[in-house]
Amino acid sequence: MMDETSTSSRDGAASRAATAPPVPVPPSAAGSPQAPEPPSAAGSPQDAGPPQAQEPPHAQEPQAQEPPPGGAPHTAYAPLGLPPPKLLRWEIVSVFAVSLGASGVYALVQYIGSLTAHQALSSQAVVVHGTLAPGRPLLDLFLQITSITLALAPVLLVFYLLARSGEGPSAIGVDASQPGKDLAWGAGLAALIGGAGLGLYLIAYHLGVELNVVAENLPDVWWRIPILLLAAAQNGILEEVIVVGYLLSRLDKLGVRPGTAIAISAVVRGSYHLYQGIGAFFGNAAMGVIFGIFYRKYGRVMPLIIAHTLIDAVTFVGYALLAGHVSWLPAP
Fold first, then answer.
1. How are beta strands 125-127 and 212-214 bridged, if at all?
2. How far apart are CA 80 and CA 177, in angstroms?
3. 174 neighbors 168 (Cβ within 8 angstroms)
4. Which residues lie across from 212 on neighbouring strands?
5. What are the sequence ranges of the domains in the chain?
6. Please, what's the b/e burial string for 125-134 (b: 16 or more CB within 10 A of its CB; e: otherwise)?
7. Is 198 within 8 Å of 215 (Cβ atoms)?
8. Distance between CA 185 and CA 197 in Å, rounded?
9. Residue 218 Cα distances to 123, 143, 231, angstroms
10. Helix (H) / strand (E) containing 110
11. Tens of pLDDT along 130-161?
């Protein structure tokens, strides 16, 4: 009995000795190189327990970033550059399909209608700028302003297309960088072309190949002259930006020869004046040649806008003041 207990005690002691951690031997006693100190209690693996599972980086929730002062962050967009030649041709066709190209088609149909009418061309009249609400001056005023404003929408389209390709209005010379030169050139061109255009119109009218062009037919109210001046400015901006600046710059990028490009621009300009008669077609085409040559040489549309505005302003206001009072001007 005593032997079994002793044996059991010895076996239990041996078992405990086998499972107990070994006691480190002091360096001095073992004669071996100094062993590293055991980790402190705080850093001991036994005390720290099993390692904690860490979330993978992709599973962590992103930190919300506060927007900069003033709202959402702005994103800078790089210009897209010029489209391929095929798309550039379609761009030109699209711009003119919603602007002066459509006007040219309509003017051609009107001219055919005048030619097939049962009376001479000189006995037919066409109104360039007339009332939009007869007998209602205030409504007429608002309609005139609306019409002038909406007519400039194609110019915004052209400016957008220029910006989209990395350019801007200044690329075709629409800016205020040279106000003195632009005004001087514009006044000179207006004096040259305006007088010649009036003479050509009178000759064509008396030859019977031109309609009686009634430049304006607005009611005699206080806003008559201001609206005529705004209409003149609208014509100058719309036609010169699209038919000269935009068209010639795009044709140049397509590799069209300068002479051919100017001829195309001049024919387009003449086409949407055809409703007035064949004389108006050739007169405005000649004006387009002069303006095209000027743009090719100086690269600026502003003088052309000024010249066109002055020509139309003198035409509209002069007609309002002189029609019916002078013998050389056809009566409305």
1. parallel
2. 26
3. no
4. 125
5. 119-322
6. ebebbebeee
7. no
8. 18
9. 21, 12, 12
10. helix 100-115
11. 999 999 999 999 999 999 999 999 999 999 99
Question: What gap in Å lies between CA 201 and CA 196, rounded to an integer?
Answer: 9
Amino acid symbol at 11: D
Residue 332: its pLDDT value, please?
Answer: 80
Instruction: Kindly write down the DSSP assignment for every residue of 115-153, as one continuous string.
Output: HTSSS-GGG-EEESSB-SSTT-HHHHHHHHHHHHHHHTH
* Helix 278-298, helix 302-322: angle, nearest 10: 150
Per cent of the chain over pLDDT 90 is 70
Q: Long-range contacts made by residues 137-144, C-beta under 8 angstroms, separation at least 24?
A: 137/219, 137/221, 137/223, 140/218, 140/219, 141/221, 141/223, 141/227, 144/218, 144/223, 144/227, 144/230, 144/231
Total number of residues shown for the chain: 332
Write out pLDDT tens, residues 41-53.
444 444 444 555 4
CA dihedral 151, 299, 258, 253 (to 10 degrees): -80
* DSSP conformation letters of 314-325: HHHHHHHHHTTT
- CA gyration radius for the chain? 43
Identify which has the larger pLDDT, 34 or 147. Answer: 147
- Which residue type sits at 141? L
Q: Mind giving me the DSSP string for 255-305?
A: T--HHHHHHHHHHHHHHTTGGGBHHHHHHHHHHHHHHHHHHHHH--SHHHH
Residues 232, 190: Cα–Cα separation, whole Å = 13
Strand partners, 130: 217
Rounded distance between C-alpha atoms, residue 317 and residue 332, angstroms:
14
What pLDDT digit, counting tens, does each position of 6-32 carry? Answer: 444 444 444 444 444 454 444 444 444
Q: Judge whether 248 and 162 are in contact, CB under 8 Å.
A: no
**Beta-bridge partners for 213:** 126
| Entry pTM | 0.77
Q: Is the Cα torsion angle 297, 303, 305, 308 positive or negative in sign?
A: negative
